[in-house]
Amino acid sequence: MMDKVEKFQIVFNNPTATYFAGETVYGYGWIVVKEAMYVQSICLEAIGEAKVEWMTSSDIQASDEEVFNHTTVLPIKGQSKKGEKQIDDEGFLHAGSHYFPFEFTLPQKLPSSFKGKHGRLRYYVRMTVYSHGVFSQGGPHTERTSKFAVIGALDLNNEPDASLPVENDTFEAVGSWCCMAGTVTAILRLDRKGYILKEAIPVWAEIKNLSARRIAHTTVSLVQNVTYYSYRGRFSESTVLVTVHKGSVAPRGKQTWNRELLSIPTVPPSHLRGCKIIDIQYSIELCIKPAGLARRIKLPVDILIGTLPLKDPQHKVTCHPLLAPDGDDTSTFPFPFFSDSTSDQVFLSDMSFHNMVPTAPPWEDDDEIP
């Protein structure tokens, strides 16, 4: 059958092949045949599946889950060379191009696409053309697959603590076990717990260096915390998505983060609800690095990242001052303003283009579909 097919391609109505949960996906299969052929049926499958796998000291932990499945048989509108009636239920495809449109609606509570080091959740469409013969996996057929991405919905208005402020503080000794240099106190505070994609988070923090050792630098980072589940255990990993740096703090000195802005890239919403084997959480983490041989001091606060903002008028969405108001141009990176003080200079690091697009884009060639 393959020797008669010159081209077989699946085309989506959205050029980026990215859809929101609850949206209808439109597309068509494009088949170019070199010579006339009969087709018994064309089957379309839209599948969403999650898989996790990691290695322990004794074995390999793995699990999988299907989160979405839509299967349908597409109508065949082929005709004979002379316009004769089709033979039985088979379709006659003349030489040239043929288009087979399809559509399906994604459920409202579908989880987002995701790809991590030890697991992923992906969506794809598979179109199978069966020639006349046995309608089964073993019969004559040819198939194509094409991936698409889904952005799940998380309404912050349904999260009871999304509008509440969050805060954390610490009081820790600085130095090695044989030479303590003193203590450092720190407090990290956010106006609220819930934010949406591409929003800028105003960060307030205060670090008091009560030690005799200089603090080399401080950072505030957006951290993605992922937990994978199998039938016999779980595994967690953390990834730093965006980091903002500040300068040093002298001994007996103080440093203040006065609502510096930390922009949220395009990432899956918190929780990844609808998937039982992958859970995603986010946190803002203040990190203090003393000079010399001393461990870093880390101070985290948990946050929620959603897709629908809070309706309370006092919780307005904060956009970065250098980011376009519509937020559509993901090719321009938002950078915070620089302060006048050299020690308090703010700059971004660990930020690249892939942080601004879905974590599981449908155009990744290295992720083969079995």
What is the topological layout?
Blueprint (H helix, E strand, L loop, with lengths): L4 E8 L5 E3 L3 E10 L3 E19 L4 E15 L16 E3 L2 E10 L8 E2 L3 E13 L9 E11 L14 E11 L2 E12 L3 E3 L3 E10 L5 E15 L4 E13 L7 E10 L14 E13 L6 E10 L40 E3 L21
Parallel strand pairs: 2-10, 13-19
Antiparallel strand pairs: 1-3, 3-7, 4-5, 4-6, 4-9, 8-9, 9-10, 11-12, 12-14, 14-17, 15-16, 15-18, 16-20, 18-19
Q: What's the structural domain tally?
A: 2
Helices, by number, come to 0
What is the β-strand count? 20
**Strand residue percentage:** over 45%
CATH topology of the largest domain: Immunoglobulin-like
First-residue to last-residue Cα separation: 21 Å
Could you report the average pLDDT, rounded to the nearest whole number? 82
Q: What's the SSE pattern?
A: EEEEEEEEEEEEEEEEEEEE
Organism: Littorina saxatilis
Family: Belongs to the arrestin family.
Protein name: Arrestin C-terminal-like domain-containing protein
Pfam family, one: Arrestin_N
Quick tags:
single chain; 370 residues; mainly beta; Immunoglobulin-like; 2 domains; seven-stranded mixed sheet; six-stranded mixed sheet; 0% helix; elongated
Describe it.
The protein has 370 residues and is mainly beta. The chain has two domains: 2-151, Sandwich (Immunoglobulin-like); 156-356, Immunoglobulin-like (Sandwich), CATH 2.60.40.640. It is 0% helix and 52% strand. The protein is built from no helices and 20 strands. The strands form four sheets. Strands 2, 4, 5, 6, 8, 9 and 10 form a seven-stranded mixed beta sheet that branches. A hairpin with a 3-residue loop joins strand 8 (114-115) and strand 9 (119-131). The two termini are 21 Å apart.
